[in-house]
Amino acid sequence: xxxxxxxKIYDVLIVGAGPVGLATAIALRQRGINNLLVIDRTRSFRRxxxxxxxxxxxxxxxxxxDEQAYxxxxxxxxxxxxxxxxxxxxKEQKTPRKLFWCQKNLLGEVIRSIPLDxxxxxxxxxxxxxxxxxxxxxTNLRNLLPSEIVKxxxxxxxxxxxxxxxxVDCISGDEKYNNPFAHWEMQSxxxxxxxxxxxxxxxxxxxxxxxxxxxxxxxxxxxQLIYCxxxxxxxxxxxxxxxxxxxxxxxxxxxxxIIQELENKYFQGERVVTLRNDSLxxxxxxxxxxxxxxxxxxxxALGYLFHTPLSLDLLENKSPEAIINLAANILTKADFxxxxxxxxxxxxxxxxxxxxxxxxxxxIPHSQPIWSSERLVLVGDAAHGMPPFAAQGANQGLEDAAIxxxxxxxxxxNNALDNQEIISHLFSKYExxxxxxxxxxxxxxxxxxNWSQTEWDSYSDAVYSRNVEDLISNFTA
Length: 477
Hints:
Elements: E1 9-15, H1 19-30, E2 36-39, E3 51-54, H2 56-65, H3 67-89, E4 100-104, E5 110-115, H4 118-125, E6 130-133, H5 134-142, E7 150-151, E8 155-161, E9 166-172, E10 203-214, H6 221-227, E11 239-251, H7 256-267, E12 272-276, H8 278-283, E13 291-296, E14 302-309, H9 320-333, H10 338-344, E15 353-359, E16 372-373, E17 376-378, H11 381-384, H12 393-413, H13 420-447, H14 453-464, H15 468-476
Parallel strand pairs: 1-2, 1-10, 2-7, 4-12, 10-17
Antiparallel strand pairs: 3-6, 4-5, 8-9, 9-10, 11-14, 11-15, 12-13, 13-14, 16-17
Helix pairs in contact: 1-5, 1-12, 2-3, 2-12, 3-5, 9-10, 12-13, 12-15
């Protein structure tokens, strides 16, 4: 079947209806490009995903893409922050106190701190900072597009590059698909979906488009199909970053003794704090020490998220109880006080998180473009997925959307949809602008946990103070 039997050829097909794919669609429509379609494998839009931090560079990119999208997302994020703060404090405050996310050592001394209020970020970097649930971000963006151009229940399984277009093959009704690289719940570490599987009892459909934007996430099917049977094959799927997250975001009925000790020595009135043993860095050069994020909940409840370097072999086929004991033992070996092992062992096994973090390295040594192939181009996590340690995944994806939206509109404005030379040139130019910066972002992502306040401030100034209009000017020059 060929797009409901119509034989229609779209100017642009976007694979993936996450925030980056939707932002790309909005960017194109803002530039008068309406012959486009967004497809996604999900059977329906539902509340999934974690909370996303949109930082100044991401908000600047979104504002450049569309003022209305920016205003709606910002309002939703600020409302979410206010509601969460009221739940945490237990009451509404006329003058909310300023909140900080502090990284502290095991003595409770501040190593570095990050203000969390919108105004601080706005005055320093020219734009603020918000937190927003991933689903709410997706919904805000999706609602700015006509419903008929966003199709769910279409999982891309193959494509073929023809002379004048790309044909994308999809299946519908596939209930077995699982993405092992993006889920937070406990799952088998050996369960990796093969993009060449042949599901039965699924409806097949084909779409044709002049250009295809792969915004289908870190487990991108398009990326795997481009890279397979080439010298990039080893980079087709995400590589293990070496780090894993273990956590339980809400543990109830914690004793007053534990609550008070953690409050008095570590929280000290804040809602969230990151702890690490900074003495390990001074004693052993370049060591990656584990760090523990503690989250204060209402009454006698806490949550935690534990990031640690770990071999995947130590996680395979482990029960939740074994994972909890493993985390507790790692903390003990890193000289964390016994109270933290006690807290870990209180984890609710039904709500336990165990997530290895994966990465698509931006610094792949290759002389040819790695983010595009003829009429296809990768954006967001499909191009450069990485762990969330610097909260730059969605933000860098929005920067991609702003740039690739400009690139594609330039192609179409110049009537160059049948000019492969111009298409390849602009896709290559997009990569030349974005990839070197992504190399720096990924390096910062993997190393920032050991930074001083001065190092963090220097990084923040370099990333958040950038002007999106200047980036676009450099691209179009």
